[in-house]
Each structure stands twice: as structure tokens, then as C-alpha cells.
Amino acid sequence: MKNIRVTCFIQQGAFGDSKILKLESVLTSVYQGHFGRDFKLTFCWISIPYEQSYIAGELSNASTVQMPVEDGTPDPLRHEFMREVCDKWQKITHCSKDEIILVSPNMAKFKAFDNKLMNRFAKSSRRSTKLKMVARMLAGKLKKGYLNTSVNL
Amino acid sequence: MPLYTISTQSSLPVQQREQLAKLIMDVHCGLTGAPETFVNVLFSTNAPLNRGIALNILGTVRKGRTATMNDELQLLMMDKVSELLRIPQLQMEISLFEIPARWIMEGGEILPEPGEEDDCEWLQNGHGE
Known about the structure:
The complex is a heterodimer of chains A (153) and B (129). Chain A is of the alpha/beta class and 153 residues long. Chain A has one domain: 2-Layer Sandwich (Macrophage Migration Inhibitory Factor), CATH 3.30.429.10. Chain A has 4 helices and 7 strands, in the order E-H-E-E-E-E-H-E-H-H-E. A 5-stranded mixed beta sheet of chain A has the order 6-5-1-2-7. In chain A, strands 3-4 form a two-stranded antiparallel ribbon. In chain A, strand 5 (63-66), helix 2 and strand 6 form a beta-alpha-beta unit. With 129 residues, chain B is an alpha/beta fold. Chain B has one domain (3-124): Macrophage Migration Inhibitory Factor (2-Layer Sandwich), CATH 3.30.429. In chain B, the strands form 2 sheets. In chain B, strands 2-1-3-4 form a 4-stranded mixed beta sheet, covered by helices on one side. Chain B is elongated. The mean pLDDT of chain B is 93.
């Protein structure tokens, strides 16, 4: 079983808990449908408080979803998968096509980006910050049934 | 994309966030020619940044521009943001992370490569408007 971490940046309070759990279930099926049942998806929901995200200089309602795929996945397969993810996301959340930004990088690139994000922090704080984020995610799961935290650390 | 993540130790006032979001869009689009509708800016606070650093800018951008243009983008961004927020450049960090456009979907479509926006039918037909 290969574990895939999916990161979803969503506007705080935009979707109810049941909608988020449905997204997890449906998007897992979509992923497994395209790439096989060997993959287990772990979703991390990062909420963005009001007035902390902008598109084209204006307040944004968009969600940004990062769903990595295996290195070397051919573009036609990747794109077909991405289209289905966006379709399903819109159907479940009732958002417009402009309110979902999907990034499906190769796994290696996704890990490199994760490192880049962590490298923003002082070297001495990286470990404790990571632990803090994990603890918050787990506390969020106990409370709501899914891993979640805020974009504010 | 681009997605600029602005990390600070303490929260910036709303007015400054708005000004910064517009400034980043103007600088990015002015230099690269990218459409404004692509420019996302996200603010993250309470970040334990490096000692002496007040603000970190991480720009996730489409791959395909020259190293010279990316360098120029970072220098200009640093200059303009420092001027707007009155933060010395020594207290700021900026870096770019490149991702192939064909791995990104916005408006239900795969993004065009940098410089190919004019040939992109869905973009010319009013994406995000």
C-alpha cells in the first residue's frame, strides 16, 4: 500500500464537516480508479481565515488542492484524472470552476515543495513546528473526524 | 499559479495585505506578462522564521522562464515589497519554486506554458472574469 498525502487549502468555514468527509471518500475513489487500489490517501485540510488569500488582487474564495501522482505519470493520464477531480469537487461543493485550483505534481516534486515550505522556518524550530502541526492535525481529527489545521502556525 | 505564500511572525493589517496582494500581482504580471487572474497570494502568520527575518516570500511559479527573468523577478519583488512595508531587505527572504504548467489546473483547464497565454483559447475567452 502506497500512502499519498493530499493537501487541501480551503477557506475557513467554506464547507461543512460532512462535505469534507464526502470529498475524502469520493476523491479517494477517483484516485484509486485512475491509478489503482494500492494507494491510500491521507487528506490534510488547511483552513485559511477570512482576508488571508487573494486572487488577482481581490479576496479569494478559491480552494487549492495538491494531489501528487507517481513520478513519470504520462500527461494524458494525469490530465484525465485532474479533470475528474475538478468535476467531482465542483459537484460536491457547488463551487464554480474558478474556485478550485488543482496541482498534481510528481511525488518527488511534491516532497521538494514540502521541504521548501519547511525551510522558511529557523532550523532550530523546524522539528518543533512540524510536531506542532501534526499535533494540531490530530486534535482536529479527534474533534471533526478529519485531519485539519490552520494556515496560521 | 503563481501562488505567493507570504509568511510573517506577526499578522499584517488587512490594508497592508490588500496592498501587498495587488503589488505582487502588478510586479509579477508587469515583468512576466502573466495574466492577472493567475496570481494567488496567501498569508500565513505566527511563522517561526529565521532570526532577524520579518517576512518570507515563497513564490510557486510556472516553470519555463529564464533564470535571468526569475532573478529579476525576485530582485524587483524584494525591492517593491520592502518599499511598501518599510521593511529593510535584510529582514526579508524571497525564493521561487518552479512547477510545470501542465501539472496545474485552473478554471477547469490545464495552464498554458509561460509565454503561450495568447494562444490559449480558454484564457482568451474570459477565464476568471
